[in-house]
Amino acid sequence: MQFNDLALQLYRYQLKNNVILQKYVELTKGDPSPKALNHLRFLPVSFFKQQEVKTGDYIPVTTFISSSTTSQIPSQHHVRDLSIYEQSFLTQFERVYGSAEQYIFLCLLPGYLERSGSSLVYMAKGLIEASNHVDSGFYLYDFESLHQKIMSLQNSTRKIFLLGVTFALLDFVEQYPEGLGDAVIMETGGMKGRKTELTRKEIHDMVSSTTKNPIIHSEYGMSEMLSQAYAASGGIFEPAPWLQIIITDINDPFQPIPNGKTGLVNIIDLANIDSCAFLQTQDIGKVYNDGKFEILGRLDHSEIRGCNLLYI
User: What is the pLDDT of residue 48?
Assistant: First the structure.
């Protein structure tokens, strides 16, 4: 079955079994039986802050909680089946980067490790386990230990994969730029007010020039999703095959616009079977004819999200 057919089938199922989506579609006078993806209603992710967004009645096995500042209400994504998320992130990673066993994962995720319910930490833990290597692991603020580990791995047959939240990654490479020239360096977003806001290009240029690594990678995901997209270069994200981006007009979020035009990012994430697969973000971006996409910023009035503060 093709993506469009699966998406429409899931939309009808969720519209019937998800009270929040059902009410939202009714209140916004959406089509209750759409025949095309550009007729769908996308639930604003802000609903995850105030409502239990669930399809069906179940007790969640876990709840992913978004990063936020103390003045913000975090989103809560109630997960019915963690195996779906595990299959999603492992499959997408291996599509883009190959087997996890090729890498040693060094995950620099302070802030996320220090709280519970982070979907990013859960994904990183899964990649660490999938690497099946004793040197894969997490790091908080002990940059010296991370640096020593990187230097000790210079002759390893595996490639270093440094996965870092942006503010910590910048701090680390400023202090210890050595040994990262041929590593895969991936920033996951997240400045959390710790530094002056920088564009993604500025961040990548800083890390690249400091480490002498010509390519800095990016990850796009959020607590309300169960899938990721990766940008191996140039800030152009490749989504999982079960993930699709639809751009709508900034001034009319119900009006889709053509590929290549800048607007509001809406997400169809077929892995979100038990919550809501149809999400309206507060990100601004564009999608290309091959399905890849670019994130260009955020709406001026939107709250700053801990996992995605980068403006281009």
Answer: 96
The CA-CA-CA angle for residues 3, 299, 170, to 5°, reads: 90
CATH number 2.40.160 given to 83-220 = no
Q: How far apart are CA 242 and CA 268, in angstroms?
A: 8
Single pTM value for the model: 0.91
Evaluate if residue 154 carries a pLDDT over 50: yes
Helical packing angle, 200-211 and 166-175, nearest 10°: 30
Nearest C-alpha neighbor of 123 from the set 89, 79, 91, 97? 89
Buried b (16+ CB within 10 A) or exposed e, 1-10: eeeeeebbeb
Round to the nearest angstrom and report the end-to-end CA distance of the chain.
36
Question: What residue segments make up the domains of the chain, in order of their start?
Answer: 83-220
Could you report the per-residue pLDDT of 111-125, keeping only the tens digit for each? Answer: 777 788 999 999 999
Q: By the 8 A CB rule, do 92 and 227 touch?
A: yes
